[in-house]
Specification:
single chain; mainly alpha; elongated
């Protein structure tokens, strides 16, 4: 960051907390959509399993913070 190539998106702790909350909500929404698709289309469940596992692990990471 010292050579000016990158800029912070969240300049304050409050804006960082707000962005983290927004991203967590978005991950929850996406996980719900994937789960619903899996329920509505059981034949697609194996293909969606990777997405479910990925979102699940990311949600756990968000909850740990």
């Amino acid at each position: 960051m010292s050579d000016g190539k990158y800029q912070r998106l969240c300049k304050t702790a409050e804006s960082l907390a707000n962005e983290r909350q927004r991203q967590t909500e978005r991950m929850n929404e996406l996980a719900a959509i994937v789960e619903r698709l899996s329920d509505e289309y059981p034949g697609a469940a194996p293909a969606l399993r990777k997405a479910v596992l990925a979102y699940g692990s990311r949600l756990q990471l968000c909850d740990d913070d």
